[in-house]
Write a structure and sequence with these properties.
- The chain is mainly beta.
- The protein is 0% helix and 52% strand.
- It has no helices and eleven strands.
- The strands form two sheets. Strands 2, 4, 5, 6, 9, 10 and 11 form a seven-stranded mixed beta sheet that branches. Strands 1-3-8-7 form a four-stranded antiparallel beta sheet, with no helix packed on it.
- Strand 5 and strand 6 form a beta hairpin.
- It is globular and about 45 Å long.
Length: 120
């Protein structure tokens, strides 16, 4: 069973930074591509960033390119989202997702999320 636990959210001022973490368990982490999503109240969930199973490639939504960095530590079964120059806006819940790319195991899963609020 895919288990994902996000942390690091909170209140930050516009222009500030936050680092989110997502600890994974219950599956072979290195066989899974990982993603970060965010969802604001009343809006659809948006894919923010994705990273390959070994961390060799990343992709970002246009809205966060150049400001967010997605990384993973397969030895710690953890992914990180470094968010810089945060823009003010509605609070959003950031959640991480896992998708199996090889080998046996659960196909995918997503965590409960952590809330990020950018406000002065």
């Amino acid at each position: 069973q895919v288990q994902l636990a996000e942390s690091g959210g909170g209140l930050v001022q516009p222009g500030g930074s936050l680092r989110l973490s997502c600890a994974a368990s219950g599956f072979t982490f290195s066989r899974y591509a990982m993603s970060w999503y965010r969802q604001a109240p009343g809006k659809e969930r948006e894919l923010v960033a994705a990273i390959s199973s070994i961390g060799s490639s990343t992709n970002y939504a246009d809205s966060v390119k150049g400001r967010f960095t997605f990384s993973r530590d397969n030895a710690k079964n953890t992914v990180y989202l470094q968010m810089n120059t945060l823009n003010p806006g509605s609070p959003a819940v950031y959640s991480c997702g896992a998708r199996r790319v090889c080998g046996p195991g659960p196909s995918d899963g997503r965590g409960q999320g952590t809330q990020v609020t950018v406000s002065s």
